[in-house]
Amino acid sequence: MAFDRPQDRSDGKALFNAAPRSFVVTIDGVGQVSAFSDERVLVSLERAQSLGRLPELRTKLPIGCRRGGCGVCRARVLKGNYRSEAMSQEHVPPEDRDVGIVLCCSIFALSDITLRLEPAPKGRPRTALAAVK
Predict the structure, then answer these.
(1) Which of 27, 73, 110, 121 to pair with 63, CA 20 to 30 A apart?
(2) CB 120: neighbour CB atoms within 10 A?
(3) Phi/psi class of residue 75: alpha, beta or left (left: φ > 0; alpha: ψ in -120 to 50)?
(4) Which residue has the higher pLDDT, 37 or 11?
(5) Is 93 within 8 Å of 3 (Cβ atoms)?
(6) CA dist 74 to 15, 21, 27, Å?
(7) Predicted confidence (pLDDT) per residue in 96-112, tens digit
(8) Whether pLDDT at 49 is above 80
(9) Which residues 6+ apart lie within 8 Å of 36 measured at CB?
(10) DSSP string of the chain?
């Protein structure tokens, strides 16, 4: 399995050594949660869902390996800056990455961001699809 190199979509602003900052992560059509710059976006979504802060998300968030290898937490970044760790090219090929497809377990918010949950790649269905009104 091939992994791409980590990326920084921070518009050149170095925030890596700063104290953690709080940002808003909006899931298109679902709701908003707070996230910290030093935590994976998936962790902030899990926390919010467990606290009942994503009532429009009718099923449990899809979670797999938590380290960029399985592809079930795919999302498209519609707006905002983020830092990413390695993601499997099998699940996020370069052409998907170029249009903002990421794995929530592999990105860290560097600004307020807006995401849309994306279907799993062909041949690898999600165990729980997010139902959005």
Answers:
(1) 110
(2) 18
(3) beta
(4) 37
(5) no
(6) 24, 24, 12
(7) 999 999 999 999 999 99
(8) yes
(9) 20, 21, 22, 23, 44, 109
(10) --BPPPEEESTT---TTSPP-EEEEEETTTEEEEEETTSBHHHHHHHHHHTT--TT--SPPP-SSSSSSS-TTEEEEEE--EEE---BTTTS-HHHHTTTEEEGGGEEESS-EEEEE-PPPTT---SSPPP--
Q: What is the pLDDT of residue 10?
A: 52
What is the identity of the amino acid at 32? Answer: Q
Q: Give residue limits of the domains in the chain.
A: 21-117
Q: For residue 58, give both structure tokens.
A: 């009718």
Query: Is residue 123 very low, low, confident or very high in pLDDT (cuts 50, 70, 90)?
Result: low
What is the C-alpha to C-alpha distance for residues 90 and 9, in angstroms, rounded to an integer? 21
In the CATH hierarchy, which fold is given to the domain comprising 21-117? Ubiquitin-like (UB roll) (3.10.20)
Short-list 1, 3, 12, CA closest to 97: 3
Nearest to 90 by CA among 78, 74, 66, 112: 74
Is 50 exceeded by the pLDDT of residue 133? Answer: no
Task: Between 50 and 120, name the one with better pLDDT.
Answer: 50
